[in-house]
Amino acid sequence: MIKMVFFGDFWNNQYYSTVFSLKILQIQIDTEIKTLILFALIPVMVAFSFVIFVFYRSKREAKIKEKETELQLQKTEVTLKALKAQINPHFIFNCLNSIHHYMYSHPVNEAGQYLLKFSQQIRYVLESSERKTVPLSEELDANRVYLELEQLRLNHTFDFSITVENGLDPDTIYIPPMLIQPFLENAVWHGVSGGGKIDMVISQADDNHLLCEIKDEKTNSKPLEKEINLSQQVKKTSLGMQLMQERFDLLNQINNNKSGYRLEERKDGIPGKVLQIRIPFED
User: Residue 200 forms beta bridges with which residues?
Assistant: First the structure.
């Protein structure tokens, strides 16, 4: 009996000892697994933190860049408004110069008609100067009035035509104001002032631009009369062309367009020049 009790206690002790050892081993294994998992997660956490940092930084830089772009656009728009403010007085001076010249060489009633057309033109200039775009129909009407003014001043020594390509609706197409008139002025003063014709054709160049082609045809080499000519006091044409180039540059900067102009001698054997203007438009 004594031996049996002894062996029973022995086996019980062995059983509990084995169970305890297994538990210790399980704890050690669990600890090692947790340690391995922790070490395995550290690179993942570092990579995740790096991704979050890069995302946050890129988003922050994008906001800063967007703000800088917005400020640059605001600066460009202010500069564009300043250029338009320069162009408009330049245009008004030229018209006043024409009226001054006209009053000395025509009857009073004809001078009154000239002043009436001039008032229409000035009204358009002042109203359009505060607008980014105007209907093409309004711009063409204003240019038609301008050419009629010059016809009056020059005793109808030149003719003109304005044509819009079929398929274009001038009432639904919008362009920046006062982009065409300075070039027509240049064609009058340096092309047909002694006699001739101006043909202007509006067509579509691509999805974002119109093409305005202005051809002047000289039929007489008679120079522009210089009696009481105030234009001698300013370099009006060079100033106008310089301002227009700057304006095109700014329009391209704002809208990412490819607008501009190109002036060449005519290649059809007719004395004169041909001007092509790429004008950005919206519909």
Answer: 162, 214
Q: Which phi and psi angles does 7 have, rounded to 5°?
A: -65, -35
Select from 123, 110, 202 the least CA-distant residue to 153: 110
Please give the mean pLDDT across all residues of the chain: 78
The Cα 209–Cα 119 span in angstroms is 31
Measured CA to CA, the distance from residue 19 to residue 24 in angstroms comes to: 9
Residue 263 tokens, joined: 């002036």
In order of start, what are the domains of the chain with their CATH numbers? 69-280 (3.30.565.10)
Q: Return the SS3 of 265.
A: strand
Q: Classify residue 85 as exposed, middle or buried by CB count within 10 Å of its CB (0-12, 13-18, 19+).
A: exposed
Who's near 86: CB < 8 A, 6+ residues apart? Answer: 243
Q: Indicate the pTM of the whole model.
A: 0.67
Residues 6+ apart with CB under 8 A from 267: 274
Query: Residue 107 has what pLDDT?
Result: 80
